[in-house]
Every structure is written in structure tokens, then in C-alpha cells.
Amino acid sequence: MKCASSFTFSKALNFGSLAARSLNSCIIFPLKCSIRTGRMESNDNNGNLKDNDGGSRGAFIVLEGLDRSGKTSQSSKLLSFLEGLGHPTELWRFPDRTTSIGQMISAYLSNQSQLDDHTIHLLYSANRWEKSSLMETQLKSGTTLVVDRYSYSGVAFSSAKGLDFEWCKAPEIGLLAPDLVLYLDIPPEKAAERGGYGGERYEKLEFQRKVAECYQALRDPSWKIIDGCQPMEEIQKQLQEIVLDHVSACKKGRPLSHLW
Ligand SMILES: Nc1ncnc2c1ncn2[C@@H]1O[C@H](COP(=O)(O)OP(=O)(O)O)[C@@H](O)[C@H]1O
Ligand SMILES: Cc1cn([C@H]2C[C@H](O)[C@@H](COP(=O)(O)OP(=O)(O)O)O2)c(=O)[nH]c1=O
Fold first, then answer.
1. Beta strand 41-43 pairing with 49-51
2. How far is the CA of 132 from the centre of ligand 1 (A)?
3. For residue 199, what pLDDT is reported?
4. Is 52 in contact with 64 (CB distance < 8 Å)?
5. Quick one: pLDDT at residue 259?
6. What are the pLDDT digits (tens) for 178-234?
7. Where does the Thymidylate kinase-like domain start and stop, copy by copy (predicted)?
8. What pLDDT does 197 receive?
């Protein structure tokens, strides 16, 4: 894979932290299906409700996979499932196209603008950084976040273009790490058959094959790999079984960690 030449590692890091500092002060409009804030409550030994300050929090769950692997369908089913069990839950997605950075990304994806590969990579990252403090607030207030794509998409798609793998990871350093990555595994050819690709920039079979290889390189043993070719209901059942353990571990105070 080719190395970034004029753009150094430290510049990428500086960009990431600068974007985080300046954008965190902006008004943020999160893309979500439900908003529930407020403190978690639990019973003390006498059965009285008390504030839950002891690190109890929501779980950070990420769905990853190729375009058309079923992430959006499964994310919303997961949201309904968790809400149905009474867990405060929000559905987020990246890129979040509602912010001004997100709109630049959207214009690029629909081929209305042209950007250097490094530049768009850093914009995707900035789009995550501008949401990171809100993300942390929500998790700490007890809300579980189901997130459709995260840093792994950033690295897989940009390194599939030929950018250096480690360079691609650098601007993500320090972002919150998910508690669980659910990877919907589907051959690129199968994904392409699903309703056909639209006109977006990356929706091309040859490119998706490279993305699949880059995801392979990025995977770690903690990822849950789900066969995305199964019927939707079967996938849904498997995801439900996996997430509950993580939701309860986070409720019991599993600490938040950071990438990578
Ligand atoms: N398990 C599945 N089997 C068959 N079709 C599916 C399955 N999951 C999703 N689809 C269909 O594939 C298309 C893309 O699904 P979507 O959830 O939008 O994927 P993504 O968000 O990963 O791009 C939709 O038409 C959806 O109905
Ligand atoms: C989050 C992210 C997405 N992408 C790509 C993946 C998708 O092809 C595209 C748009 O993402 P998305 O809107 O999730 O598309 P889809 O629903 O088809 O999966 O942006 C990146 O290249 N880098 C990133 O950091």
C-alpha cells in the first residue's frame, strides 16, 4: 500500500485534535431515533431508588460491513429490540451528513465535489470527532448507542484506495472505542445484487472487493462476524443474543476505552 508523502503522521494527528477542539463547541444535531438523557437509577440495598454514579453506562455498539451488507436494516431492528427491553438507546450513523462537515462528505460521495483522498479521509475522521463529546455524554448518561459505521469504515475504505494503513488509523487515535463491533460478512458480489448499487462513489464491485480485504486486515478477535447472507430474521436473532451481554456489562460499570 502506498505511503502518504507530503502529509505527515503528526499533521494528521494535529488535524484530528484541532477538529475535535473547534468542532466540539459547535451546535450539534445528532441523527437519532430517540433521545433519552438523564441519570440512570437503580435500587440500593433497601430497595430505594438511587442515582447510579458508579460507572454504570450505556453500551457503544458498532455495525460494520460492505455497502448493502444489511447494516442499516439491522441497526434499526436492534434499536427496537433494546428499546423494547427498556434500555435507553439511540441510533447513530457515520458519516453524519447533518453537520457542515457531513454535508461536504455527502457532496463528495454523490460526485458533486472532488477531494484529495487524504482530505476526505480526514473529513470523515473530523465528522466522528465533532460527535465524540456528545457520544461520551450519552453513554455516561446510560444511553446505549447503536452506530452504523465508525472508524473501521474510515480505515477500510481509505486504505482500499491505496492510502497507507497506519496513516489511515492515526486520526482516529483517542476516539472512544466501541464495546462491540458487529461485522456483517457478505461477499461483495452478493451485496451488489441487493437492490443494485446507487450512484454513490464507492458503490462499485471492484472497489468493494478491495474494501472487504482491508476489513480483513483490520479485524481483531473481539469482532463478532455474522454471516450477512442469512435471512434478516436469523441475523437479527444472533445480534440480539450477542448485544445483551455487552449491554449488561456496561451497566455494571465496564470502563470506556479509546482507539486503538
Ligand atoms: N439479510 C438480508 N437478506 C436479503 N436482503 C437484505 C438483507 N439485509 C438487507 N437486505 C436488503 O439489502 C438492501 C441493503 O440493506 P441495508 O440495510 O440498507 O444495507 P447497508 O446499510 O449495509 O447498506 C436493502 O434493500 C435491504 O432490504
Ligand atoms: C464512516 C465512513 C464511511 N465511508 C464510506 C462508506 C460508504 O460507501 C459511504 C457512505 O456511507 P453510508 O451512508 O453508511 O452508506 P451505506 O448505507 O451504503 O453503507 O461512505 C468512508 O469511506 N469512510 C468513513 O469513515
1. antiparallel
2. 28
3. 77
4. no
5. 98
6. 999 999 999 999 999 997 777 789 999 999 999 999 999 999 999 999 999 999 999
7. 63-238
8. 78
Ligand 2, CB cutoff 6 Å, lining residues: 67, 71-72, 93-95, 109, 124, 148-149, 153-154, 157, 202
**153, 156, 159, 165: CA torsion to nearest 10:** 100
The closest residue, in CA terms, to atom 25 on ligand 2 is 154
- Name residues whose C-beta falls within 8 Å of residue 7's C-beta, 6 or more positions apart in sequence: 118, 167
Residue ranges of the chain whose pLDDT lies below 70: 1-54
For 176, counting Cβ atoms within 10 Å of its Cβ (0-12 exposed, 13-18 middle, 19+ buried), the class is buried
Ligand 1 centroid from CA 68, angstroms? 5
| Domains of the chain, each with CATH number or no CATH | 60-259 (3.40.50.300)
Torsion of CA 20, 23, 26, 27, to 10 degrees: -70
Helices (H), 51-204: 71-84, 100-109, 117-140, 151-160, 165-169, 188-193
* Prediction ipTM score: 0.97
Atom 8 of ligand 2: nearest residue by CA position: 202
CA of 228 to the centre of ligand 1 (A): 9
Place of cell 497506519: 166
Cα 122 to middle of ligand 1, angstroms: 28
Question: Would you say 88 and 36 are in contact if contact means Cβ atoms under 8 Å apart?
Answer: yes
Q: Contact at 8 Å (CB) between 83 and 98?
A: no
- Protein residue with least CA distance to atom 24, ligand 2: 154
In the prediction, which pLDDT does 85 show? 98
- The atom of ligand 2 lying closest to the CA of 198 is 18
